[in-house]
Amino acid sequence: MDSKLPPGLLIIIFVLVSLQSYMFASPEFDYVFRYLEAEQIGAIVSEQEKKAAWKTAQLQHICESEEKMCQRNLRVEKMKSELLNLQIQLHDKTPSGGTPPDNERVRRSVIGNIYVINLDKEVINK
Prior knowledge:
Blueprint: H1 7-25, H2 27-93, H3 100-125
Helix pairs in contact: 2-3
């Protein structure tokens, strides 16, 4: 080795390099390295758990919203069916030559039922 460094400095550099090699080869360094590696893995896992919890909450909200919408649609379909049945009853109970008081009584009965159904519909939409 052709160097212009004084021999004492070369010995110091050699000792430092040897010490550094010894440090990286020591069991303590291995423990420190494993600890740091475990901390990094733990941080990654923690972030993934947070993301999974957020996604689970979002999916739960979507499922609940879908269930509410489905129940609402079923109630609306039931009301439509009831209205159709009332229209059929009105048509069946109103003879073409019936007396006006009978027709008026049936009409009021059907209108009252439709009013109740409309009130139910307003409650459902709230």
